[in-house]
Design a protein that fits this description.
Order of helices and strands: HHHEHEHEEHEHHHEE
Number of domains: 1
CATH superfamily: Vaccinia Virus protein VP39
Number of helices: 9
Strand order of the largest sheet: 3-2-1-4-5-7-6
Largest sheet: 7 strands, mixed
Structural class: alpha/beta
Number of strands: 7
Helix content: 40-55%
CATH architecture: 3-Layer(aba) Sandwich
Bound molecules: S-adenosylmethionine
Radius of gyration: 17 Å
CATH topology: Rossmann fold
CATH class: Alpha Beta
Strand content: 15-25%
């Protein structure tokens, strides 16, 4: 399964950012900024962004660190951000964006299910729209928690299922319009059928919180529905 996921993202990597902007009408930036705000960053800080894809969340964290450092007159060079993914083709686009702006973000290949980092190394481990693609999400959550210090945060941004009046139009949109644009823009209807389909089935809200609780890694877990529950942010405080 992971091999197929890797190959699917390799295939759509060149159009991934454009598709994100088109399909979410740019709202994914708002969700990422919300995630960064909830991180409540205190400097100096070490952040690991897993399944980073083209690096947007890692870059959003970096921008926040820069503004905090400038505001408080603190040095920038004792912070660390590592952006990782198991798909090298996606990482090419992350590396290009990061190099173009000379952001001090390390980009490394890593599988969420087997991270090469020491226990308790990071203050925050994050993953956006990646955990549902991982073969064993519970093991992925445990791995994220393993590399975070006690009282640090695991931050998971993932799709959910919208509720209320918005559910029906959204379901129509994700089942029909997304695959259509997937074919038109990315030349891959399959990927843009798979992505909304997995989102429609993936545990969200209380159900995903239970998965996190069952890892026994957290002293506290909060979650925030975003845009009628299209997405959720989960924040676990590591024991
Ligand atoms: C939908 S993209 C999300 C990318 C980015 N985080 C974002 O918010 O746009 C999912 C990413 O998860 C990565 N991925 C899936 N399973 C993974 C795993 N086991 N380890 C590392 N990366 C994984 C894929 O390669 C892909 O880049």
């Amino acid at each position: 399964m992971s091999k197929e996921v890797q190959q699917m993202f390799a295939k759509i990597s060149s159009k991934y950012d454009l598709m994100n902007d088109v399909l979410s009408f740019g709202i994914h930036h708002i969700w990422r900024n919300f995630t960064v705000r909830k991180a409540n960053i205190q400097l100096p800080i070490k952040i690991l962004d897993c399944a980073t894809g083209t690096g947007d969340l890692a870059i959003a964290f970096h921008k926040k660190i820069v503004s905090k450092a400038e505001f408080n007159g603190l040095p920038l060079n004792n912070n660390e951000i590592v952006a990782t993914d198991f798909c090298d083709e996606m990482l090419v686009y992350a590396k290009n964006k990061i190099a173009a702006k000379e952001y001090p973000i390390k980009v490394e290949n890593a599988d969420v299910l087997n991270l090469q980092y020491s226990d308790y190394y990071f203050d925050i481990a994050s993953i956006s729209f990646g955990i549902r693609n991982v073969d064993n999400p519970s093991k992925g959550v445990s791995e994220l928690a393993r590399v975070v210090k006690p009282n640090g945060k695991v931050m998971i941004l993932e799709f959910g299922q919208p509720i209320g009046w918005f559910a029906q139009p959204y379901n129509f949109y994700s089942k029909n319009i997304m695959p259509f644009f997937g074919k038109l823009i990315a030349g891959d209807q399959g990927a843009y059928t798979y992505l909304p389909e997995t989102a429609s089935k993936f545990p969200s809200g209380e159900n995903f919180k239970k998965i996190m609780e069952n890892t026994n890694s957290f002293s506290d877990i909060k979650y925030y529905p975003l845009s009628f529950g299209i997405a959720y942010l989960y924040v676990g405080i590591v024991k």
